[in-house]
Write a structure and sequence with these properties.
The protein is an alpha/beta fold. It contains eight helices and seven strands. Strand 3, helix 4 and strand 4 form a beta-alpha-beta unit.
């Protein structure tokens, strides 16, 4: 969601969590403080703030890291319940050292590793790294263009996670495919950016 209005519509449609960002056309960037404030006042849903300083990949220099730290402080001061972030090394692996620092800075907020995960080739090892460093959830399509296409990998990630980290299926999740996706993968949660009418269909399909 990119605004208080869209977050309120999502809540009315049955969403039980809102991910707030700006510039969705770029894949999402850190929202402004006033947008978070308006969203917190508009909805009772837990708000998780995307903390992403730019759209130029997921390898961050010192300047970008400082902007991530500022984004985390924004989320904490603004009353968010979680942050959504991710960092990779120049070799395309989880930047464990940076993630450990960011997680420590984020607490007590919940931490979700975003779809940078889908750019990693060795996702089994990446999943273990995220578990070890203390990430709460990972947002993923199983490395495919859509969650439906990545259902096999999503099922394997759920199996490997064994409840140690939450797997959130993302990537064109719709009311028309969510039941089959959950049945095929066992994912405990899904992520969708879709019109309110389809969110309602998705919520009905999940029995909410």
């Amino acid at each position: 969601m990119t605004s208080a209005r869209s977050a309120r519509a999502a809540e009315r449609a049955g969403a039980d969590r809102v991910e707030l960002c700006a510039r969705l056309e770029t894949g999402g960037l850190t929202p402004a403080a006033h947008t978070l404030d308006a969203t917190r006042r508009a909805t009772r849903c837990p708000v998780h703030v995307l903390v992403r300083p730019h759209a130029r990949g997921f390898v961050y220099d010192h300047r970008a890291r400082a902007r991530i730290s500022t984004g985390i402080l924004l989320a904490q001061a603004g009353g968010a319940q979680g942050v959504v972030l991710g960092a990779l090394t120049s070799h395309g692996l989880v930047d464990v050292e940076l993630m450990a620092d960011l997680i420590a800075a984020s607490r007590p907020l919940r931490v979700t590793f975003h779809r940078a995960f889908d750019t990693i080739r060795q996702r089994d090892a990446a999943l273990e790294a995220l578990i070890a460093v203390g990430v709460d959830h990972v947002l993923t399509s199983g490395g495919a263009g859509t969650a439906a296409d990545g259902a096999g990998e999503l099922a394997e990630l759920v199996r490997r996670a064994r409840g140690r980290i939450g797997i959130i299926a993302a990537g064109r999740v719709r009311g028309s495919n969510v039941q089959a996706l959950v049945a095929a993968t066992g994912v405990p949660a899904v992520h969708a950016h879709t019109p309110a009418a389809d969110l309602r269909a998705l919520a009905r399909a999940l029995g909410r």
